[in-house]
Amino acid sequence: PFLCPLPPRAFSVVSGPAQVVVNSLLTRVYNKACLDNDCIGSYILFMRNKTDKSTQVQDEALPALEPAHLPTGEFYHASSCKPEETIGYLIRTVHLSMLKTIDIEMQVHGLTAMQWRPLLLISKGKGETAAVLAKEMNMDTGAMTRMLDRLQTKGLLLRTRSELDRRVVQLELTAEGHLICTQIPAGLCSAINHHLRGFSDDEFTLLKKLLKNMIANGLDI
Fold this sequence. Notes:
Number of strands: 2
Strand order of the largest sheet: 1-2
Largest sheet: 2 strands, antiparallel
Radius of gyration: 35 Å
Structural class: mainly alpha
Helix content: 40-55%
């Protein structure tokens, strides 16, 4: 049997002859009449012909459905764009502020905000050579070499020739370098938490999600 999941009032938007058809259909449904043997199309045509033409009321035009609004991603326009309000500017400002805060946290270890990362990467086996570190940190090899010089001067880093290829200089941490690497995460967490003051758990989760979405969008360039 034909079953209607909606009550008659759900069809109140329909008017004119169409309302007659709907009312008749609903009457049969709610009286448990079976429509299995009725062709709905023929039934509607029959009801239209049955309606007195002299008293027919023109169907009222139903309002056009507006298409669902879909985000286009075009939030900025050249005519109204303010650089200081762009996402890039805001993210850059937050990044610089974090680096400044991390720099303060790292001072206790005699490090700058840029020196802790190569140490951690080496400790995790992700920076066995200067070239690998430079690629990982998106730095040129010359700048990385100078940074490693300073870390070696501080007694945190050792350079040794590879036994397999004497042209390759491998990097490893000293005992003091390993000790500092166990203390660095606490300073990083302190600096990041400082910038997340006042955030709720939901806001924190949403922020990470949105930033990951932006990162993913940039991968298809």
